[in-house]
Amino acid sequence: MTNLKVHGSAPLDLGSDLEGDLASLRCDCARMAGHWSAPAPVTTLPVSPSLIHGVTVPPTSARLLDAMSDYGD
């Protein structure tokens, strides 16, 4: 079910498709672009192999991964 509640100043055109089209999606994305910012890039340094002590995987996760096919389903 589509939520028709609108929290903004843009008018809702009920005569058009509620899902919109590619042009309206691009317009929405361009309007929202200023509200979203990319996080600062994180630089990581290589870790010496002597500092890596292994990985612990819970048995349920190991069974899940073991049951997955190599190339997806």
Task: Please describe the structure with a list of short key phrases separated by commas or semicolons.
single chain, 73 residues, mainly alpha, 2 helices, 27% helix, 0% strand, flat
List the helices and strands and how they pair.
Blueprint: H1 22-32, H2 59-67
Give an overview in words:
- By secondary structure, the protein is mainly α.
- It is built from two helices and no strands.
Largest sheet: none
Enumerate how many helices there are, as a single number: 2
| Strand fraction | under 5%
Categorize the overall geometry. flat
Structural class: mainly alpha
- By DSSP, the count of extended strands is 0
H/E order of the elements?
Answer: HH
Q: What's the Cα radius of gyration? A: 23 Å
**How far from one another are the termini?**
30 Å
Low-confidence stretches: none
**Residue-averaged pLDDT:** 75
Instruction: State the oligomer.
Output: single chain
Q: What is the percent of helical residues?
A: 25-40%
Describe this structure in a few short sentences.
With 73 residues, the protein is mainly alpha-helical. The protein has helices spanning 22-32, 59-67.
